[in-house]
Amino acid sequence: MSISHKLEMKQGQQLVMTPQLQQAIKLLQLTNLELQEYVESQLLENPFLERDERASQPERGDGSSAPKGAEGDKHEGEQPLSLTEQSSPKDAAGSLDTDYENLDPGASRAEKYESMKADNSSSDWSSVKPSRAYDLSDLDMDANLTRVKSLQEHLTEQLHLALRNEMQLMIGSYLIDLIDEGGYLRDTTEEVAERLGTSDAEVVAVLDVIHGFEPAGVGARNLSECLRLQLKELNRLDERMDVFLEYLHLLGASDLPGLKKATGFNEEELQEMIAEVRSLTPKPGLAYGSETVQVVVPDVFVGQAEDGGWKIELNSETLPRVIANQKYFAKLTSTCAQDDEKSYITEQMSNASWLVKSLDQRARTILKVSSEIVRQQDAFFIHGVKYLKPLNLKVVADAIGMHESTVSRVTSGKYMATSRGSFELKYFFTSAIAATTGDVTHSAESVRHRIRELIEAEKAQAILSDDRIVELLKVENIDIARRTVAKYREAMHIPSSVQRRRLKQRAI
What architecture (CATH level 2) is domain 432-507? Predict the structure, then answer.
């Protein structure tokens, strides 16, 4: 068999990601703070991009139906943000994974032609000026490497290592957000349970896990509890010290005679305990408080509508308002004589127009995804965290005509403010457990909650094994394997049936 050279022509199709299309996709995954920084950099770099100083009304959607919004007055170079969903799902911003035709179905042929000309004149990133938001050349790497983590970041990392239960993770995240810079939880567990629509026992169980995190004493509700947690960590909390901490307020009032009388300890014993307590940290959270903790700014607000449904509206404060100055572009174009100048001006105008359209599409997409999440998780907003439904990206993507990757980008780093607190959109996506009849599914969180209820209700004479729990759940139309029950039980830090039997026998 001889080896020879030959030329062949083949016809094929492939998807080409233009720089502008890549920019539109990147905008979707940026948080509102990152987006503000990116837009500010573009305002400095692009002469045709201007800040829109006009007052704007927040866009909103009502109930679980399509979001609605009033069109503002049209200005040159700006596409009004109309959020009334009259078109079919394929016209939505979910088509960000295809081409410009799908990205901006409302654009005129002339606009599309001008955009295509700009794309052809700059077919790769080399001709596009780098944005400060993505240019790493001016980053201070040392400053980034030595950045001190915030207390919330430090606790959140530990939370995800300690827990796997989505419902407990949601409760834990909410509690961590409530912890102040000193490391104290100022809200009561009853208040938190009422807001989240769960039991006080569930909140206390998660808080007990947080009490085991570093720094020792974090999550305490008062100074006495903070010191107890630290002494427990040092294995120096005994009955005598516990009694001393009960009357800690007398030490704060410098009432040593009263403290001596209340505890029954002599002066030497008290001095030793006082010295030990003074060696502890009264505000453990301050070790992580050298940086200002950034408050989470919600992207979407969810509230009760007048008709009994849900009102979903974008946070207008997080939406950058920019316009492309068509008049300035026309003026410069008429005065430019050289081709390279005209090419540069056309490119910058195209970039400005595309950014305006991309910001509009980003807002539409966030609101559309949020509205569908609210529709799918209606029971959560009414009854609380126990009623989270099984939900995945594909269900939401199919319902609103978007690609799963688009929904994934939108739900990361975006927050929804509700009457039950602020939650990242991705928290509403939970795994499912099949029913024995095969016609319905159960949320993994609700199944875990039911396992906990069964175990908490068991008696010392009738401890439930994992196999027995499987049988009881099948009676309730929940099809689950024994190893899954064991995995969920361990994730909730519940001992095995043998260990529980021993503990309850000792208690008797």
Answer: Orthogonal Bundle (1.10)
